[in-house]
Each structure stands twice: as structure tokens, then as C-alpha cells.
Design goal:
With 408 residues, the chain is an alpha/beta fold. Helix content is 38%, strand content 12%. The protein has 18 helices and 10 strands. The protein has helices spanning 20-30, 63-68, 82-93, 104-109, 114-118, 145-151, 155-158, 175-196, 206-213, 215-222, 259-269, 284-289, 291-302, 307-316, 327-330, 334-338, 378-384, 389-397, and strands at 11-15, 34-39, 73-77, 97-100, 125-130, 200-205, 241-245, 251-255, 321-324, 401-402. A 7-stranded mixed sheet has the order 6-5-4-1-2-3-10, sandwiched between helices. Strands 7-8-9 form a 3-stranded antiparallel sheet, with helices on one face. The longest helix is centred in the middle third of the chain and has 22 residues, at 175-196. The chain is elongated. The model has no long low-confidence stretch (mean pLDDT 96).
């Protein structure tokens, strides 16, 4: 295992909020990049307070910020002020990556566009995340994962419960996967720079990632297939790809794609070898034709014993299935813990967080650190740019910057 973090020496300047763009910075910080999160004085990044918005779970812990703000430095800088922007340009001058998800008009108004920043640093990889892309009439439209990723892509329709108008959106479900795409684009930009010596602009959008996530059904539509309609469980067209509730109220999901091979395993696992001789289920075609009847049989069978019994039996017989975890179950999921997916935050007295999903063999990630308070690193970062203490105090007094303990 290497003692040197893979992205050590990479400097990232992040002027972004609300998940997609800053989550890409989180991944870079996990691998050792210096990530400087620039936020405005006063309340700072409003993402710090997202956990207080209904219907988010109530907590006195800023869990959204804990997750995405880890391993970063906070610099509170007024970018509406010419001096503040001048400081940002100095930060960018020796940065490797700039990340933003501000609207194109805001980027332009603040002088933070690709052309502007490339003029300060021709090796800069400029990463821009948007809701709806950077072309067309909707480029200025606010885009959240619920709207641009989940709703616009058709997924909200595709996975809706039978009879419902739509499915409910959950927080960050599109932002965090899309952040992995942005991270990949950034790394492509850095790779290109290694080959050419020049920086570049890379980009992605929530809409693009939503379409990619739902691409199988969209490709089906492009090929003329009828629209997918979510069936009711009792009317499932394939009983062997469906969820079942066990006797203790817990659930499992069968995913028996290789029906002919796995069917004998299933009937042995659930102690229903009588089903082998049932003409309704004699072969894969018959099982599909009589899926409603098979669903009823499996419903009754799985309801006769707790999940623990079925989990062991299905594993023993090599049947493909998954556990339907509740959110509360995830924290104690042994497989997740064994793979380091819920690491402890250093110095937090046992508080854990969620690991980013990328691993590089032989390379350690940084242990997650506490997310910074507003302006925690303003003085440190300005000192690295050559500002002395008197200059920093003057900037703070004039509200160009804010220090962590500043009340001015």
C-alpha cells in the first residue's frame, strides 16, 4: 500500500454548491488532493443547511455538509467584490482544477468563465457541472437531481409504483452518481494535460447522467419498443425477478436472470421440490406464462419464515437474490463494513460517513476528516498567497474575506 496519496500535489479550487460539483471535489480530496472550497462570507455555502429543509430527516448534525465537506479547506471570499475575485484569480493561477456548478450567466457575471480563468492558468482543468447542459433554451433553468436527473430522464416514471402518477425523489440519488462522472471527466482532463501540457474544459450535466442511468429503457424506446409499465407485484410477468416479503416483514429480491439453471436451485432452497413436477412451471416458458400463479406460491412460501432462514438457504443453493435493506440496516451491514464503505471520521468520537465508490489497488485513501467550519482556512490560504496578517485583517474588516472566528 502506497504511503503517498494518489492525488497529492493536485490543487483544486471549488466554487460550487448543492452536491454534484462539490461531491466530485470530495472524491478528489479522498485521494489526497488539496481541495479549497470557496464560499461567501456571512452564512457561507447554503448547502451547509440543507439538512434543515423538510422533508429531510431531522438532526442537529449537518449531515449533508459532513458528507460532502470532508477533507476540504474552507475559504470565505466575497466574489462580488473586485478584490475578492482578484484573490480567486491568484488561487487559480497555480491550481490544477477548478470546479463550479454556477449558472452560465453567474459564471459570466463573476468573471469565472473558462476563457477568463484559462487566461490566468493555461494548464487549468476547468470542470463545469450543469442541470440541463450548456446549450438550448434551458441552460439557465435551475436543475436539481430530482428535476433534471430523476424526473427529466424518465426514471421517475419508469420506477413509479403501479397505479401511481410518479415515484418519490430521494436526496442526492442523482447528484452523487453524477459526481462520479464529473470526477472521471476531471481525470480525463488531467490525463490530456499530461499529454499536451494544456488545460481544458470538461463538463457534464444532471440531465445527461439521468439519461445515461435510464439508458436501457430509453434505448428500447429509440428502437421502437413500447414504453415500460411497472407491473403490480401480484401481476409480475416474471416471478423470478421480483421482491418478496418474509415472515418477519423483511424483504428479499430475486434476480434469477438465468432461469433454467437457477430454478432447480430455488425449489431446493425453499423446500418446494413439488414445484418441479407442477406442469405450470415445467420450463422457463411455462413459468413466464403462469407467473401470476408462481408469484402467489412464492409469496406464501417466503411469508412462512423469517428472512434469516431464506437468506441462508438461498446462499447455500447459490440462488441470485438481494436483501432489501432499510436505511437503518445499512449502518450495520457487515458486507459494507467489511469493504470500508462506512469509515469513521477522524476526531469525531465514533461518527461515521459514507466512502466514495472508487478504489485503486495499492493506494490508500485519506481518512475522512471533519468538514470545515466557514472560513476555517481563509487565513492559512491567504498566507500561502503572500498576504501578511495585517492584510488579512484588513480584508476581513472590509468583508472581502471572512475568518473562522470573525464577527466583522
Amino acid at each position: 500500500m502506497s504511503d503517498t496519496p494518489l492525488l497529492e500535489g493536485i490543487k483544486v479550487v471549488e466554487v460550487a454548491t448543492f452536491v454534484l460539483a462539490p461531491a466530485a471535489g470530495t472524491i478528489m480530496g479522498d485521494f489526497g488532493a488539496e481541495v479549497i472550497h470557496v464560499e461567501g462570507p456571512g452564512i457561507g455555502d447554503p448547502y451547509r443547511y440543507l439538512h434543515t429543509v423538510a422533508p429531510f430527516p431531522v438532526s442537529d448534525q449537518p449531515y449533508c455538509w459532513i458528507l460532502t465537506g470532508r477533507n476540504k479547506k474552507s475559504v470565505a471570499l466575497n466574489l462580488k467584490d473586485a478584490e475578492g475575485r482578484a484573490i480567486l484569480y491568484r488561487l487559480v493561477a497555480d491550481a490544477d482544477v477548478f470546479i463550479t456548478n454556477f449558472h452560465p450567466s453567474v459564471v459570466s457575471d463573476l468573471g469565472l468563465g473558462w476563457e477568463e480563468l484559462a487566461g490566468h492558468n493555461e494548464r487549468l482543468v476547468y470542470a463545469h457541472a450543469t442541470g440541463y447542459g450548456d446549450a438550448g433554451e434551458e441552460i439557465e433553468k435551475p436543475g436539481y437531481d430530482a428535476t433534471a436527473w430523476w424526473a427529466r430522464s424518465g426514471m421517475m416514471d419508469t420506477v413509479r409504483p403501479p397505479g401511481a402518477d410518479h415515484a418519490i425523489a430521494t436526496a442526492g440519488m442523482g447528484d452523487n452518481p453524477s459526481a462520479v462522472a464529473l470526477f472521471g471527466a476531471i481525470m480525463m482532463g488531467l490525463y490530456r494535460r499530461e499529454r499536451t501540457g494544456k488545460g481544458s474544459k470538461v463538463k457534464t450535466s444532471l440531465m445527461a447522467n439521468g439519461v445515461w442511468a435510464n439508458s436501457i429503457f430509453i434505448q428500447a424506446a429509440l428502437c421502437g419498443a413500447p414504453a415500460f409499465e411497472p407491473p403490480a407485484h401480484s401481476e409480475s410477468p416474471n416471478a423470478l425477478i421480483s421482491a418478496y416479503v418474509c415472515g418477519d416483514g423483511e424483504a428479499l429480491y430475486l434476480a434469477m436472470i438465468n432461469d433454467p439453471v437457477e430454478w432447480p436451485r430455488l425449489v431446493a432452497a425453499i423446500g418446494r421440490k413439488d414445484l418441479v413436477d407442477d406442469p405450470r412451471f415445467a420450463d422457463a416458458e411455462s413459468r413466464r406464462a403462469n407467473s401470476v400463479a408462481l408469484v402467489a406460491v412464492l409469496d406464501e412460501t417466503f411469508a412462512s419464515a423469517p428472512l434469516s432462514r431464506w437468506r441462508q438457504a438461498l446462499d447455500d443453493h447459490e440462488v441470485t437474490f438481494g436483501i432489501v435493506n432499510r436505511i437503518a440496516d445499512v449502518a450495520t451491514d457487515e458486507q459494507m463494513c467489511a469493504n470500508g464503505l462506512l469509515p469513521e471520521i477522524e476526531g469525531s468520537d465514533g461518527l461515521r460517513t459514507v466512502a466514495s465508490p472508487i478504489e485503486v489497488e495499492g493506494v490508500a485513501k485519506l481518512p475522512p476528516l471533519q468538514a470545515p467550519v466557514l472560513g476555517q482556512h481563509t487565513g492559512e490560504v491567504l498566507a500561502s498567497l503572500g498576504f501578511d496578517e495585517a492584510a488579512v485583517r484588513d480584508l476581513a474588516e472590509r468583508r472581502v474575506v471572512q475568518l473562522a472566528a470573525s464577527t466583522t
